[in-house]
Automatic annotation (TrEMBL):
Keywords: Hydrolase, Metal-binding. GO terms for molecular function: hydrolase activity. InterPro entries: Glyco_hydro/deAcase_b/a-brl, NODB_dom, Polysacc_deacetylase_ArnD. The keyword Metal-binding applies. This is Polysaccharide deacetylase family protein. It is an enzyme of class 3 (hydrolase). Its EC number is 3.-.-.-. Transmembrane segments: none annotated. Residues 38-59 are annotated as: Disordered. The keyword DNA repair does not apply. It comes from Paenibacillus shunpengii.
Length: 274
């Protein structure tokens, strides 16, 4: 009887306590192992999705779809075409382009760099006075993909400050250098009632192409509502003589096809100013 009560009152509780401790350890160990096994996966998942969104931001095509009202490469399919000239004003090329446009009675759109306005205000004034539309092409021509939003805003606003004393308006159109813009910058532009205007016909004239190649690049791709990219200025050593020599023929051939040459705001039905 003594032995039985020893088992019941002393040994069994001890066994119960020991087994409870063991099972706690085991479950703890299981929990740790389990979470250790899961943790890398749990951490990896958000990390890898963050990494992919960092490394794969929306493409320009995706941004154009998402912000189709604000980010444009062409107008409606009407018999109108807009010629555009970037990187102006430049005393080597811009006055010759203006002469040709004037002699054909055609207006175009010029995307200006603020630092060039500061250098050549008289050419900039001439662009405006001869009835051409003005768009903002940044102050110093950086790739916007490498800029923060405040740096991007600074590029836009410095150009506006350079342009305003001469044209007395803030241009509604922004053409990003190289056509590149981030979604955050685009959102800022949308919130501040700008339009981002790229192109859908590229002359590739910045490569220093000859007259015939420039004509060929434009005419082979032209379509109703097209926005044509050309340059009216460039860096040291750039040669836009092909653009200048091609321009009279480009104008007459487009007109012969029935296209009316208009400014981008006319093509898009938007105002010049913001
Ligand atoms: Zn440019």
């Amino acid at each position: 009887m003594k032995r039985l009560s020893f088992y019941i009152f002393i040994l069994l509780p001890c066994i119960a306590i020991i087994s409870a401790l063991i099972s706690t350890d085991l479950s703890d160990a299981f929990y740790k192992n389990h979470t250790n096994a899961e943790q890398p996966a749990a951490i990896q998942k958000p990390d890898s999705s963050n990494a992919s969104s960092e490394h794969h931001p929306p493409t320009l095509g995706q941004l154009r779809k998402k912000y189709s009202h604000y980010f444009l490469t062409n107008g409606p399919r009407v018999n109108k075409v807009a010629l555009t000239f970037d990187d102006v004003p430049d005393p080597r090329f811009t006055p010759q382009i203006l002469d040709i446009l004037k002699s054909h009675g055609v207006t175009a759109t010029f995307f200006v760099n603020g630092h060039r306005i500061a250098k050549y205000p008289d050419i900039f004034r001439r662009i405006h006075e001869e009835g051409h539309a003005i768009g903002n092409h940044s102050y110093s021509h950086p790739n916007f993909n490498r800029l923060t939003v405040p740096e991007f805003v600074n590029e836009i606003q410095r150009t506006e400050q350079a342009a305003y004393p001469i044209i007395e308006y803030y241009p509604k159109m922004i053409r990003p250098p190289y056509g590149e813009i981030t979604e955050e910058q685009l959102k800022w532009a949308v919130d501040h009632s700008y339009r981002i205007v790229n192109w859908n016909v590229d002359s590739l004239d910045w490569k220093g192409l000859g007259k015939n190649e420039v004509i060929q690049n434009i005419m082979s791709d032209i379509r109703p509502g097209a926005i044509v990219l050309q340059h009216g200025g460039g860096g040291v050593g750039s040669d836009l003589s092909g653009t200048i020599q091609a321009l009279p023929e480009v104008i007459t051939r487009l007109q012969a096809l029935g296209y009316e040459l208009v400014t981008v705001p006319e093509l898009l039905g938007i105002s010049l100013e913001k």
